[in-house]
Each structure stands twice: as C-alpha cells, then as structure tokens.
Queue: 3 jobs
Job 1
Amino acid sequence: MRYKLLGKSGLRVSELALGAMTFGEEWGWGASKSESRKMFDAFVKAGGNFIDTANRYTEGTSEKWVGEFVASDREHFVIATKYTLFMRRDDPNFSGNHRKNMMQSLEASLKRLGTEYVDLYWVHAWDFTTYVDEVMRALDDLVRQGKVLHIGISDTPAWIVSQANTIADLRGWTPFVGLQIRYSLIDRTAEADLLPMARAFDIGVTPWSVLGAGVLTGKYLKKTPPREGRAKEGAAKDKRNLTIAEEVAAVAEAIGCTSSQVAISWVRQQRGVIVPLLGARTLSQLKDNLGALDVTLDQKHLERLDKASRVDLGFPHGFLAQDPIRDFVYGGTYDKIHNHRRRMSGEPY
C-alpha cells in the first residue's frame, strides 16, 4: 500500500482506510472480536495505517477494540474518531457540535481508546444549532492542548465547511484537513459542491459506503438475493442502482476481478485526495476489498461506468454549462481561454 498526504497536512495516511463501524455486534450486524482482530491484522499486513472509528460505533465497543489492537505500536497508527452523535439519550448536552459535548466526548473517547491523543478528530454530522465559530475555536483549543493533532468534518453541507475553513484561515485557527462523505457509483451527488470544494481547499476526502450499502458487490443481482443487509431499506430495489450494478459486474468480468474491486477502484481513481473507507464484516470481505489495490480501470471502463451512473448536478451547474449562458458570460471567448482553474470545478480545459 502507498500513502497520501491528508489534505493540507503533512500527515501520511494509507491509500485505503479501515472503517471500524463493524467492530462489535451490539447493532446486530457487526463482527466478533476475533473476526475484527483478523481484519485489523490483514489491513496492517497490507500496509494500512489509517483506522477510522467513532464514539457511537457499536455503543463504544469499536473504540475499545481499536485501542486494544493498536496498543502495542500506538505511534505507528493514524487513529481517527468522531463526536456529535448522542452518548446519553434524552440529555440535550450529550449530543451536538457544541463545545461542551465536544470536550466530554473526546475525554470519553480517549479513555475507551486508551490513548492520550487522536490523530484526526471528526465532527461527525452538522447539527445546525452551533455557530461555526464556536466549533472551530473549540477544536483549535484541543489541537493546542495536544489531545488532537488534526481535524476533519463529516456529513456536512459544503457551504458550512467552506465558511469554517475560511474563518480558521483568517483567525489563525486549525482548519479541516479531512472531509468524510457518502460517495459511490450509485450516489454521485457530492460531485456538485462537496468534491469541488475539497479540491479547492485541498481537503482530503474519505468516502464511506463506496459499495453502495452492498449493491455494487453484485449480490442483489443474484436469482436469490440476500433478505437482509444495509441496502434492504430500498437501495437494492432501485432499478437505476441495479442497472449500475450490472455495468460494474460487466466491467469486473471483462478485466478479471470482482465487482467490489471495480467499485472501490472507481472511487480511488476520482480526482483529488481520495481515501476510501473499507467497512467489512468478515475477513474474506476485507481481503476482497483490499484486492482493489491491484486494479486500475482504463479510460474505456471509466467512461462506461460514468455513462451508467452520471447524475444531474442541478442548479446552478447545469445552467452555467449551457452554451447560450456561456456566450453571455464570456462573450464568445470561452473556448479561447486556457483556464487551469476549471479543474477545480470538474470542467474540461
């Protein structure tokens, strides 16, 4: 495995991250401790050093096990955890983005992880109640205290992340260097604003659900698809999603690999600093996912998958891309300007 710099930081993270949401069986679909340990060991053997967990994952079990697994060589690993989600139901100050919850959540996570600091601390989801200034200043305090080395943000609109990093830059506070989003061949809506923003601010992206809740593995294309799974609430029944899964399976057959490896490779080959999160429940699943490291899709296959999965990015993107609008904006000179900045928005030269 090779390594990438996480956004504007100098932090070296493996090109794939191990998602530890499946570490623990409290939620009814995770992995046992022995199986989790086997997956951890296989990931490390492949060169992985980036482990992602959260305070809520499997009611805290995920953090406890991650802490145990890395204990023998803590400094080698890049440990990421998150706060925001509730840790005590019906108590308003045990959830949210605000300073009080941030501080008590981190202290609890450090105890579960058995460490004095975390390498990357994520805002797990935006609560739309806390001012951006409060969040960024509180996170900067944690960095200055040495309890957190870098910060990231997950599941948050692009305009909020942009505002946060602009404020941090102006005030000399710690900026977000990581962005965690849902992104796969069946959900490309992040291409409208989140991904262009990440490239513009040089923020590393760690996509989750890169297999589309299992749809892109091809298991729902079988004559007898599984009755249960994360996709059972509807994703596996969506005709568009199944059509995309069929294209993924066809590409996989053509190049001699699995559908999962094609789906992961497609995400890895998108522009920007992309570090997919692997969330497996068994050792065999993880080993199959790690096989994506040996798969590179050629331009023909990338175009085929793009055609099958392309989405309408909505206003103003489609509006501004229309020839009559471009003519109004550029006065007939659009094609005469070699604008390197178009790479940030995803436009061709």
Note: The longest helix spans residues 239-255.
Job 2
Amino acid sequence: MLQVSISEKVANGCPDLCILVLTCKVKNTESDEQLWEEITEEEKRIRTSTKLEQINKWLPIQATRQAYKCFGKDPNRYRPSAESLRRRILRELPLYKVDTLVDLINLVSIRSGYSIGGFDADKVNGNKLVLGVGEEGEVYRGIGRGELNIAGLPVYRDSIGGIGTPTSDEERTKISLETTHLLMIINGYSGFDGLIDTGKYAISLLSKYVSATNIEIKVIQGKEQKEIVL
C-alpha cells in the first residue's frame, strides 16, 4: 500500500488531524442512475435540515477551514470541497455528473463533511505521499479550475509535486473511466470521531457501484499509522 505521512508543519498546526487512506481495485462506469437517486435523496435531506449559514459551522468543515487559516489561506476564497458541494445544494445549483467513482466520492463528502481526495492510484508517482503546505509559485492545476494558487493550503505531494488539496485535486492524477486502482483519502481535521463510520459508508458504496475488491485501509494520526479492517 502507498505510504502516506504528515509533515511536521501540518502535524503541529493541526494536532487533531486523522486521515483514513483507502485503496481498492474498481470497475468505473458512466454516471449510475441508481447512485444518483441516492445523491438526490441526500440533497433533499440537506435542504430540509440545513441552512446556508450553518454549513461552515459544522465541525468537519469548520475544522478544515481552521486549518486553512492556520497556514494563511482564506477559506471564504478557497473553500473546502465539502463546503462547496453543500453550498451548491442549498443554492439549488445542480451537482456535476462526472462518472460513478467521482460522483460516489462526492456523495461521501456531502454526507460526512470531509473533503476527500480521490485519485487514480496508478498515476501517483513513487510509493509515498507527504501532506505538507503549499508554497508560493508552486505549480498546481486544479481539476476544472486551471492554475490554482495553493500557497497556504494543505497539499499531498508525490515525487513530482502536488496531487491533492481539500479545495481541489490535481489534473495529473485525476480519476477517469479507465481508472482501475482507486486511492481515496478522507481528511478528518476535526479528529477521529466519525472517520470510521465514513470509511464504512464509502466501502458500502464502492462495493455496490464499482465492484470494489482488494480493499486496504490505513488510519494515520501524526506519526502513527495503523492498518484496519472495516
């Protein structure tokens, strides 16, 4: 399994951070109508239970925003993806249909409040990722966003450069219909509570919609790494 570690700067700035790393083999497809029925139901639930001004006060999102502030990034200008998705729902804007894997990851993010990295594991360069902080002038192409200024954002880097931030993942390692090896990283800046339940939910969707096999899971907190079974 790919090695994932947390830099000292991030560990010191975000002492509650817990990360769930999941890899599996998958069979991706065009957007699945049954999955979209689940997404539509989740949208309805959010619209009846949440107000726009409450989104950034929800603990998983609030903690991610606090991480941005800690490293000098304005979370109102560069919103965490989970917050952006919920804001779209409450503003009655349609969610993007991409493919089953991406849609599925978005559903997990919407329900949990975690900003989740989803990558084609075969496009990651090298055998390790390190979570650090973006620097001025660092080249990063956000998916569908073009050049993204990631200075002050938490960023996962492989041996070439950045591949994922809570705002947007990078074009270089993005999921496609040809993806057969998924890397999913669930970022719990608010701590361990809720992380395992979210992992179980993700596995249930992956098994149901993309025939996930060879599932491996690891939880990382600071320098501690522990493989688990869900």
Note: Residues 140 and 184 are 19 Å apart (CA to CA).
Job 3
Amino acid sequence: MLPQYPASVAISLELRDYLQPFFLRVITGISEHTFANIYLFRNKHGYRLSQVACRAGGLPVILGQDQGRPFFMLPFGLPEKEILAELFRNHKKLKCASPEQAAILEQQDYVVAEDRDNFDYLHARQDLATLAGRRFHKKRNRVKGFVSSFDCQAGPLVDARMADALAVLDRWRDKAEETEAFDDGDSAGDYTEARDALEHWQVLGLRGRVYYIAGQPVAYAMGEELPDRKTFVIHFEKADTAYNGLYQFINQEFANTLPENIETINREQDLGVPGLRQAKLSYHSFGFVEKFTVTPAP
C-alpha cells in the first residue's frame, strides 16, 4: 500500500506487484505511464509515490520535480476537485496529461498547454519492418549498404547476453561524451537509466535483442508492450556508430521480430532537441501521442 497524500515513498522494484494492476488499466498510450518508465527515471525526475482518496478507493499519484520545480502526474485518473486543487497548490503543475484529462480540466478553468517536446512518435510496425515506398528509400538504402558490408547476427536479450549489452552501452557512453550527434532517434544522456533497464529487464517486463558483428556485440534495442497489447514502446536503442547503417538495421530488424499482435511502435519523444527531432521525423510517423501540461489559472 501507498501512504496517503501528502506523505509519499520512493519508487522501488518491490512496489511493482502492487502498482502493475493499476498500470494495466492505463490506456493513454503515454510512454511515461508505465512502471518501467517511472522506475528507470525515478532519480532524474525525483519521482515519489502517494495516493489520494477517491470513490473507487485509493488512487495512486506520481510526484516529481524538474530542476527543483514540483509537478505531479495522474496516469490512473483524475481525483475529486478538492483533492485536485490541493495537488495543484502543492505541486503547481500536472505533467503528461492525456487529451481526455486536458479537455476536462480546461472546462474547469485550468490552463492547458500542449507539450509538443514530449509528444510520442507513433509508427505502423509494418512501415518500420518493411521500409517500403518512396518516403523510406533513404533508410532502405542505408540498411542495404549495411547488410552488404557486414554479417550481423542477433538474438533475444537474455541473462547470457547481458554482459554483451552492457559492453555496447559502455562504448556508446564513451562516444556520446565526445559528440551530441543523433542517429535515428538515439538520445544522449540516459546512460544510468539504460543500465538500470538492462540489469532489471525481467522484473520490469522489458524485452530486447542484442546484435553482433564478427562475434562482437555492437548494438541492442529494448522496450515494452503496452496494456492495449497492440503497441510497443522502444525505450532504448544503443549502437556503435562506427558501423554505417547499423541504427537503421536494428530499427528494422527489431520491428520484424515483434509479436504479430503489435500494430504500432511508439518511439517516444524528441525532448525539443533539434537533432533528435530531425532524426525522429525522418521516419515519417503517422501520428503522435499528445501530452499536455496543466496549471491553475492566474
């Protein structure tokens, strides 16, 4: 159980069994609204957990801070107006509100703003798996160039391949410290979270693949299936940029190996970083998971 607001507790792996039934009912499609995400980014955003009373019982609330500024998230639904007002008094801002929540709160005279930097990019799995059509010809050519130059083997992420994936991540970190270049949506600065994901992939419900050239690990990709069982979120892709076309190859290969029930791939946000936005837009998403920030009226 979680403490009653305003008391709160740190996020731990032990809380997953309690929280997972709540997360399994979340249908927003928002990439932040999974246990894996709030656990992995618990330190970056200072996440803590509390709960408030509601008609159906206790409603978990996620509390956080961005650069010392408090905020909260409500992936499991909106509480009564009085409780919501108290949350706003203490935490100023609701982040990652769904379009449905935003519409309700706008009617209650809260100030609603699009958070475009955090929109999740949505792709048809078939598009990424086949790269068919003129709009993907550059990606297709890079994959062809890679395949003609390198014999790349792959296998599912299991404990026996953990050391290989960690070696890829360490090399990626070393190169990321030298450059801020982005290749097809990979983002710098998330080494700690990516390592945590690898070390706890099973309990977090993640799945992935590790890639090898000449027997040496060169890349990995991992993510998780959302409760709708039709969407898969890509949380991390790390690759050795010394191999031209490797990122494009693992992007396509991973999409091909996802279960047939997966129709949509969520490649998360661009954080407003120009290079990252350009890389993500180059894959021609069919839409976005929209997110909103809500604040009290002045």
Note: The chain has a mean pLDDT of 94.
